[in-house]
Amino acid sequence: MKMNSTILVIEDEGQIRKLLQINLESNQYAVVLATTGREGLMLAASHQPDLILLDLGLPDQHGQNVLVELRQWFTKPIIILSVLNAEDDIVKALDAGATDYLTKPFRTGELLARMRSALRNSKKEAQITRYSFGELLIDAVAHVVKRKNEVIKLTATEYNLLLILVKNEGRVLTHQFLLKEIWGVGFQTETQYLRVYVAQLRKKIEINPNNPIHIITESGIGYRFQS
What stretch(es) of the chain map to CATH 3.40.50.2300? Predict the structure, then answer.
């Protein structure tokens, strides 16, 4: 039977974790399980799930911290499952980038419906093929980048780097994430590669490469694309 999306469950309570696994797999989802925040972060990076179910009460660190760290690079839906039901807790999680929030105990039917909605919206976002930022236009279908309607010649690596940044507009993407996405796992420590290509890209798309308005450096962390 063909599986649908891959779901990462970060939940330390065994009974809930097993219940989620059974219900998700019976609905043809592929399931990856983590019991701690650290394990969840590692599995999110290695499995690239389509959606994450995240408990806030984890044994090694607060789920809020895991959420913040995930949102430095993970752009797909994250649904919080928590016994915390105070408005402040819910607002804090949503402000930190959670897609949705369900309090425990939750109804399985409602969870599945919210997951379907989040996955549909995520796929719609992934189908955007043209990005426009002032004088800059990126056509992801034609693989064409223009500034002031003039085509900018980019290498394949420069184009791939720009597209990843653009698709994650406003989010900080770590050096390790970008290196892994562009060059592969074995290059995650080669930050000099990234600096060279970012500098080349800025020369081609920025009005003033020394004072960039699109590709912003987040010191010691990575880069962020802003419109």
Answer: 6-126
